[in-house]
Amino acid sequence: MTTTAPAGDLDQLAKVLAGYDRLVVAFSGGVDSGLLAWAAHEVLGRDRCVAVTAVSPSLASSERDDCRRLASRWGLRWLEVETDEGARPAYVANGPDRCYHCKSELMDRLAPVAEAERASIALGVNVDDLSDHRPGQQAAREGGAVFPLVEAGLTKEAVRSSAREAGLDIWDKPAAACLASRVPYGTAVTLGTLAEVAQAEAALKALGYRDLRVRHYGDLARLEFARDDLSRAVADRRRVVAAVRAAGYRYVTLDLEGLRSGNLNAAIFESS
Asked: Is the torsion defined by CA of 36, 39, 43, 48 positive or negative?
């Protein structure tokens, strides 16, 4: 387990965490939830903290593997719970409030764990997340979740710098929202759609692309690469197209604006 002493923002986060008796940390393997899970174990210890990964078709298998690897490396007390957001019609319908129904499902599945642990449920929400379209935060609050990173005043940049200071190798890991975020609002989220997105993104990562999104438009895939990778993707278009078509898409397009995390939310504001 990492033994780097908290300092700066880490020190503030440690003070916030020390104010809790016991925590169940929703752990997706990203930098936000990763820092939170690590710090909570450092401050509270394994007996008073557990990291829980929600497993469903919307979680890429590589992310699940990362959670297992990190839990082992950091010495976390860790378990998995299965969620079934796909059984919720409002989630499948994929309206602008989809994340609300997904987070409601998560809170329902974490509640028994929290009750058994006599613990609060903590989510890795940072200060910058508060200004984005995140209906899941409302569901989390309704379920009694706490946001220690927000309480400590940590922005996304502060989370990454704190993770780096702590020696956590995820400090520069690209953001990896759930696979359903690749599907435009109004298009049903199905198991088949999630599987196509997952396969296409895994194939592109196998080609060496680290930060990307495959946006799903029926039989058309719109690819968003980090801007530094755009020229490479064009030069490598034959392999890129073959990889995406193998996942089931007929048409493969490249978004020349590059990767913009959460850009499908723009449709909400344009119509309002």
From this structure: positive
